[in-house]
Amino acid sequence: MGKIILTGDRPTGKLHLGHYVGSLRRRVQLQNAGDFDRMFVFMADVQALTDNADNPEKIRQNIVEVALDYLAAGLDPEKCTIFIQSQIPELSELTTYLMNLVTVSRLQRNPTVKTEIKMRNFEANIPVGFFCYPVSQAADIALFKSTTVPAGEDQEPMLEQTRELVRRFNSTYDNVLVEPEIMLPTNQASLRLPGTDGKAKMSKSLGNCIYLSDSADDVWQKVRSMYTDPDHLRVDDPGKIEGNTVFTYLDAFCTDDDFAQFWPDYANLDELKQHYMRGGLGDMKCKKFLNGIINRMLEPMRVRRHELEQDIPAIFDILQRGSEAAREVGARTMDEVRKAMRIDYFHDSQLIQQQSDKYRQK
């Protein structure tokens, strides 16, 4: 059995820096390292519809936005399989079978589901599809026999639920599916990048995102308004690093080379932090430094994205070819699943012979 990566995003809007440091940057590194036998990256449009069922056009429009972000960030369709979830009907079939192996109470205990339900005000009226999306997510992972899932720490409960379902399936039927492991970001600051307003999560609905496709001017406007230390009122005041969004972003993005290019007064981030904490360093200087780092990182993506936007039919061709390739893999797994569940009626010659002998004896 090979080493297989699967990862993806809900196509509810353009991707932002939280997506980039949380998994997208790592995906590109893993794709280029060649340490895995296969890599699948998908757009989870079925899961996006669980809380956007009345607005499918939103999902439809954002498929291309996410694909452009993927390719601009460096994902290569020659090295990884990029596909659309809804175009793989085997995923829906496996989801249905896995639903029989989990209880309502177990889904209710999933902390990620609880958080998402509260965030969307679904407490009183939870769509069944949304409530069961951990099962759908488990099917996504299991169908491709994924061994590794790059994700943020907030997704660990979902991965544990997947492992439970895989174990339950294998013990009930046959050892067909594979238990996956999570691959967390190596940079601690990347585990969960906060919004520009300092809130715990970067969210499109909260308007606190820096998008990968933002212009240089847009980035500066957002960085300039970032939440810092509310008690750092004067330049001479000592500043706090903890909870300071600017320094959280610097932890996630800056390197010693950035100081050589943008701020040679300091050798590294530790020196900058020490100066800020003892006082005598203004927030705006730190924000200008961060702005330079982010815009230098995003500029190649902007250029590449603009090039890709000139041939949108080619983007759809990439997605169609990727979806067809993914479906071939999924179909092979489902052949094994149906055989294990003993519902491969037309391919079970022993069953057909057994039934024939049974009725001939009458």
Key phrases:
362 residues, mainly alpha, Rossmann fold, Tyrosyl-Transfer RNA Synthetase, 2 domains, elongated
Write the layout of secondary structure elements.
Layout: E1 4-9, H1 17-33, E2 38-43, H2 45-48, H3 56-73, E3 81-84, H4 89-99, H5 104-108, H6 111-119, H7 128-131, H8 133-143, E4 148-150, H9 156-172, E5 181-183, H10 216-224, H11 245-253, H12 256-262, H13 269-278, H14 283-309, H15 312-341, H16 349-360
Parallel strand pairs: 1-2, 2-3, 4-5
Helix pairs in contact: 3-14, 4-8, 4-15, 8-9, 10-14, 11-14
Would you mind describing this structure in some detail?
This protein has helices at 17-33, 45-48, 56-73, 89-99, 104-108, 111-119, 128-131, 133-143, 156-172, 216-224, 245-253, 256-262, 269-278, 283-309, 312-341, 349-360; strands at 4-9, 38-43, 81-84, 148-150, 181-183. With 362 residues, it is mostly helical. It folds into two domains: 4-192 and 312-353, Rossmann fold (3-Layer(aba) Sandwich); 216-308, Orthogonal Bundle (Tyrosyl-Transfer RNA Synthetase), CATH 1.10.240. The strands form two sheets. The chain has a three-stranded parallel beta sheet with strand order 1-2-3. Helix 9 (156-172) links the parallel strand 4 (148-150) and strand 5 (181-183). The longest helix is centred in the last third of the chain and has 30 residues, at 312-341. The model has no long low-confidence stretch (mean pLDDT 92).
Number of helix segments?
16
Please, how many domains?
2
Average residue-wise pLDDT = 92
Q: What is the correct CATH architecture of the largest domain? A: 3-Layer(aba) Sandwich
From the alpha carbons, calculate the radius of gyration and give it in angstroms: 24 Å
Low-confidence stretches: none
Broad CATH class of the largest domain:
Alpha Beta
CATH topology of the largest domain: Rossmann fold
Tell how many strands the DSSP assignment holds: 5
Strand content: 5-15%
The structural class is: mainly alpha
CA(first)-CA(last) distance: 46 Å
What is the assigned CATH homologous superfamily of the largest domain? HUPs
Please outline the major beta sheet.
3 strands, parallel
Helix-strand string? EHEHHEHHHHHEHEHHHHHHH
